[in-house]
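Lab notebook, entry 404. We have the chain sequence and a SMILES string for adenosine-5'-diphosphate, and the next step in the workflow is to get a structural model of the bound complex before anyone spends time on docking refinements. Request logged below.

Task: model protein plus adenosine-5'-diphosphate, output structure tokens.
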Amino acid sequence: MRRRERPDFFPPNVCPINAKANTFYGIMFDAGSTGTRIHIYTFVQKSPEDLPEVEGEIFESVKPGLSAYADQPEKGAESVKTLLDMAIDAVPPHLWKKTPVVLKATAGLRLLSEEKAEALLSEVKEVFEESPFLVPEDSVGIMDGSHEGILAWITVNFLTGQLSGQNQQTVGILDLGGASTQITFLPRFEETLKETPGDFLTSFEMFNKTYKLYTHSYLGFGLKAARLATLGAFNMEVVDGQMFRSSCLPKQLEAEWHFGGVKYRYGGNKEGETGFKPCYLEVLKVVKGKLHQPEEIRGSSFYAFSYYYDRAADTNLIDYERGGVLEVRDFERKAKEVCDNMERYNSASPFLCMDLTYITVLLKEGFGFRDNTVLQLTKKVNDIETSWTLGATFYLLQSLGMTY
Ligand SMILES: Nc1ncnc2c1ncn2[C@@H]1O[C@H](COP(=O)(O)OP(=O)(O)O)[C@@H](O)[C@H]1O
Ligand SMILES: [Ca+2]
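Result returned:
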């Protein structure tokens, strides 16, 4: 494939009339376990003293995620190319060469064999090299789980204005992906720092400040991985035709499910119990004693996204577009309602009861939140997606010396 050359419409030092000299772009791919997403950000830096401003974002996504192409890496890379072609139209040609493009994969690729993950990433790297954009070193890779949380924390606190000026009152974040889940907050009490395992604390420099954050990514505790764990199928050699059953599924259900390139057969407890109570106990086995419970989060409020948002929206706990504010007990109430009336919800996903119960158990018994802990569910702040990708782009631009 031929590299697209910068057309010589403008002499080197002249900008198009409507593009400000201090405007720049960054392209960040989120290769998640359930889909691949492109975020094309436009930034303006008015002065070296100010934080850069996000002027806009173009967002698009494709499904399935890269890990579904474990045995066809070229096809996986093609899905990335489709998205990258959008950036060619979105970024003015004279800035192509100055616009970095990066892809960071999360838990889906973390769970593949190194060989398969590498094959996918190297095909993607080729797509980048053939594009007209700036391809930094390490432009394609698997992101460290702790960075996922930190960068999402940066995004949310930047967008809500907590990283500029004095009097910063930062907010913690909860992200529930397909394969992993993250919790990140800035501890306020010395006690928290003392009782937290060292590898849960990370110092991070951003916008000339150092933040010491509590962050952890639990691999295998994403919503879809938790479904498999509840069914007893996570990380198992699946024997052909083997059936996994759960009290969290409709009694008569028998079906197949593909995740991470493996086919699973699953179904309801035909003869045995179903409903919220037995389901809660089943899910509890997956979660109990597996997560660190920092005392100070019990009384604070958190921003929650990804599957927390999706399942709340699916069950009308919040508005799909606008999001909303919930308490932990709202998830429990909804889980009860769905699990004890599965026949009424049979047009929705057969996993709805299990998913809502898992969210409830994860929040209450996993992290140790109270029933009345407040969760702010948001997809966007000021029209910008609340994803780790914005924080990652800031970090990238900073490392390239493009922001202050
Ligand atoms: N930028 C985004 N905008 C909207 N939803 C997102 C975004 N990123 C992730 N999600 C949601 O997160 C969930 C899955 O997380 P994903 O990123 O695929 O898994 P993981 O983080 O475990 O690799 C899905 O419900 C998906 O809709
Ligand atoms: Ca994710």
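Notes for the group: The radius of gyration is 22 Å. Worth checking against the assay data. Residues 32, 106, 177, 306 surround calcium ion (ligand 2) (CB under 6 Å).
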